[in-house]
Amino acid sequence: MTINQSGWKPTSPQANEGGARATFTGNKALMLEEALIFEIGDDQTTGVDFPAGDVAGSRLGNLTRKAPIGLPGLSEPETVRHYTRLSRQNYAIDLGLFPLGSCTMKHNPRLNEKMARLPGFADVHPLQPVDTVQGALGVINELAVWLIELTGMHGVAMSPKAGAHGELCGMLCIKAALEKRGEGHRKVVLVPESAHGTNPATAAFAGFTVEDIPATAEGRVDTEALKARLGPDVAAVMITNPNTCGLFERDLKAISDAVHAAGAYVYCDGANFNAIVGRVRPGDLGVDAMHINLHKTFSTPHGGGGPGSGPTVLSEALAPFGPLPFTARMKDGHIALIEEETAGDDHPDTFGRMTAFHGQMGMFTRALTYILSHGADGLRQVAEDAVLNANYVLRSLEDTLDAPFAFSGPCMHEAIFSDEGFPEGFSTIDVAKALIDEGFHPMTMYFPLVVHGAMLVEPTETESKAALDQFIGALRSVAGRAMAGDQSLKTAPHFAPRSRLDETLAARRPKLVWKEPAGTREAAE
Amino acid sequence: MSRYFTEDHEWIDVDGDVGTVGISDYAQGQLGDIVFVDVPEAGKSLAKGDEAAVVESVKAASDVYSPVSGAVIEGNAALADEPGLVNTDPEGEGWFFKLTLSDASELDGLMDETAYQAFVAKL
Q1: 20 to 30 A Cα–Cα from B27, which one of A66, A190, A321, A387?
Q2: Average model confidence (pLDDT) across chain A
Q3: Residues of chain A positioned with their CB less than 8 A from the CB of B59
């Protein structure tokens, strides 16, 4: 070891704009530029070498392909590097706080992954004899019991593949129930403005006519307007609770009573169940059907490792109409799979089947792991911490950003702000883009529509106070720049792999198919 | 020719029994850059308040309601290629559709330009 006599101190040099210059490769240090796979692949390379075929001739006749198929050929390391490089330009819950409102982007515990990868769950096939998959069916059955218990409902359809699919399941149950009692003429579904945007789409898809119910100034359903609209043509009300303004619909029980008295059903969008799990049972509020986003409330959010899964809990009135298949524990402990062939006369009113098989097995395993590892008290604390974190964000920023429902009392799982007070030419998108420079995925923006330039922030229980403080500081800084009319916001993000993209041009002139530049192939030959 | 406005920010120009419908300058400003417009086909029958067209911007998708009842004569084909006309000339070249009015008395419930400007000023 030599003594440093030059006076040089080993501090970390900061990135220096003055010294920055374009690199030969276009890469920025270890952040790599990446071309499209079609641009790096060719038709000479392959990751797999097949032995020469020993079949003489082809039986395809004149169906043999005349031109190259046009798929890019790459070696295995090239393929792995391509997707790994792309993944490094992505943002995920495993990288940082992900405040996307109404998405419940919470940490996905690694225990979930360990359980989901057990061969008895990961390597089974849905067509295996049920005697050979008793453990997997047991997971589905046990999770069903928990979901019924947590919601205070009567039954659950496990097969819906995600939230909107669960909504459709609930609405098809309502349709079947109405037809069964000869009231198929009830065609109107009432959807409050504070409901999720998928609700009216689901109702329309299921063949109903949608009518809006206004929100009150405090961000809740206008109960009187809803009651006034009830009548012999109304099939159901679709209500989101807690709603998209981040508020608990306090009148839901009274609404349900009025809806039932009018001969209609209550669908509750359970996407925001995280705020009330273990605290409120929707069944006690008169809900007839509610989907649960396993991939929100019970971890594995989008980008967190799994697909969606939307089991739908059903009231006693609707359970007979639920879809096949479902599991049932027999007296001897055996788990039976109730399908068309095995249902016999036991489930005559089912509206049918929504999926080929039983649902998202991987998500079931993760959700049950999450539930069992938290326990009833842990789930209750999940809801409490999620609500506490959202209120911390709301109260920390209400002096900086307009918070239209701050006066309505504590928020639930998410805090909502508007672009009120931004100078001419500045909008929510500028704040969102600048948050990318600060190292955060932006919040949900311009939704719900009842709030102008809405910014919907859902921190979830995952975040520590330190993480929340850093996010609050970043949002305060960016919002302050917007209020001050800082023009540099209009071109943000500045530090992302790509700066502000022309979203209008991209939407008006989308390029959905890669086209080989003219002459490339000829030049190569 | 007279121009009327609805509280949902549609305008309608009426010439005889033919009405031309579009969305107001205020509406296009609120929506932001329009990227897609779906206009009704000729022959479609609309009741007052029916969903007649769809307009999508980078921020949101919205329904456009028919201000009056009638039969559609023509949708503005130019909007398929140039939805931006709704931004640049909302109350002119960016019209959505023309229809034959079936009940001119429905116009009585609509606002004139002055009343609409006063309505917008309060939003």
Answers
A1: A190
A2: 91
A3: 429, 446
Give the whole-angstrom CA distance, residue A86 versus residue A84.
5
In order of start, what are the domains of chain B with their CATH numbers? 2-102 (2.40.50.100)
Q: How close A288 gets to chain B, by Cα (Å)?
A: 30
CB–CB contact A504 B59 (8 Å): no
Q: Same domain for A341 and A401?
A: no
User: Is A501 in the B-facing interface, judged by CB distances under 8 Å?
Assistant: no
Mean pLDDT calculated for residue range A250-263: 97
Kindly report the length of chain B: 123
Kindly state whether residues A292 and A158 are assigned to the same domain: yes
> Domain check: are A329 and A257 in the same one?
yes
pTM score of the predicted model: 0.87
ipTM score for this prediction: 0.76
Residues A299 and A406 in one domain: no
User: What value does the mean pLDDT take over residues B27-41?
Assistant: 94
Binary contact (A507, B84; C-beta < 8 A): no
List Cβ neighbours of A389 (8 Å cut-off, separation of 6 or more): A459, A460, A461, A463, A468
Domain ranges, residue A250: 110-369
Query: Is the same domain home to A160 and A241?
Result: yes
Which DSSP string corresponds to A140-188? Answer: HHHHHHHHHHHHT-SEEE----SHHHHHHHHHHHHHHHHHHTT-TT--E
